[in-house]
Amino acid sequence: MKRKEKTTILFVNKGARTSKPLQISSNLALNWKKYLVVLFLFFLLLIGTIVLLTFNNIRQYRSQRILTQKFYALSAEVDTNALRKKLTNNDNQLSTINGFLNARGIKSTSKTPKGVDSNLSAEDIANFYEGYLNGVTYNISYTPIGLPYRGPITSSFGQREDPFGGGDEEVHKGLDIKGPMGGEVKAMAKGEVEFAGQKSGFGNCIVLKHGNGFETLYGHLSKILVNVGDEIEIGQRIGLIGSTGRSTGPHLHYEVHRYGKKIDPESFLNLN
Question: Cα(98)–Cα(137) distance, rounded to whole angstroms?
Answer without folding.
Answer: 11
